[in-house]
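subagent[fold] <- orchestrator: predict structure for attached chain, return tokens only, no commentary.
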Amino acid sequence: MSIASLVLVINCGSSSLKFALIPFAEGEPVLSGLAEKLGLDEACMTIKDHAGNKSSQILPEASHLSALKVLFDELDQRQLLSAVKAIGHRVAHGGSEFKHSVALNAQVIEKIRALSGLAPLHNPANLIGIDATMALLPSVAQVAVFDTAFHQTLAPEAYTYAIPLEYQERYQVRRYGFHGTSHRYIAQEAVKEFSLDPTDHGILIAHLGNGSSVCAVKNGKSVDTSMGMTPLEGLVMGTRCGDLDFGAAAYIASCTGQTIDSLYKMMNNQSGLYGLSGLSSDCRTLQEARSQGNERATLAIDVMVHRLTRHLGAHLASLHRLDALIFTGGIGENSALVRELTVKRLGVFGLQLDEEKNQQTFGGQGCVISKANSPLVAVIPTNEEKMIALDAAAIAGTF
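subagent[fold] -> orchestrator:
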């Protein structure tokens, strides 16, 4: 493909900025990288090219705008900046307003800003990247791709909380789901890879990483998912507790005198694998500790797997058939142990693991890991950047 057609994908966090420069037709990034520790004196940027060569530099200012200026200068020096024909921004929360990716303009930006109350840790950070990029490259078409959009096909019974309905009507309190870009990519790849009927199939997807969620996909559409109004609901994650009885939270507050804000921080940042193990939020560290007999690391993984299998079983009830269970994300793609423990617990549904294939699948490999007489179980590496690039290119009408 001509280098005249590139899409820049930007994922802006509160203290970081990830990016990838992707040729639309070929899919592999020309450049990718990360600006981190933004807001601190040691803010830096690392850039990696398609050959795997890396370079790092300290940023002159510890801001998102400074990081983007450095990035654009780098692209210009490499004679790539003029090839950027579209920019795709990852936006965490689109509420019920955005059911698909959209071109960015002043009206859309204000709507994203108005939704910040639903994602106070994410949307404002996403907007920083959008505002800075539009200021630096105002002539380039820019697109917002929402984590929540894929799940806007949920039926009311799947997204409604059983609390007085006025809270949904007045304050938009309902289930939205996240990781939608990843789930959409995996759902599409599974249909292609396993020659499924696009109009008649059922898929369970387990996106497992520091943040984790399950999604039930029926005929290409999300019909249920484990995350809710925020990314806190659902599975046990790196530092998030997932499902928790609100009565337990109220009891903790009464015992300790903690505020709602304090409890919310605890459930988001001090719980999950980290809170259970007291050791780490990283599954690799806990698996090593488990192999050495660490009881808390063992418990953390067992609780995570128990919650995962319970959600997978429940989500199966939202499908009319099961064609495939797909593992993806950092843990899903690399942890043979978590996949093994999960599939064994799902044996009641007839799932059987090919242990040799499971052990050999890691590091970005895709593979069927089930036995021949079992419902299909597979690993498909996710590629959210590619999905964002495809959306941005399509909406910009460049390619």
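orchestrator: received. Logging for downstream: The first helix runs from residue 64 to 77. The chain has 15 helices and 14 strands.
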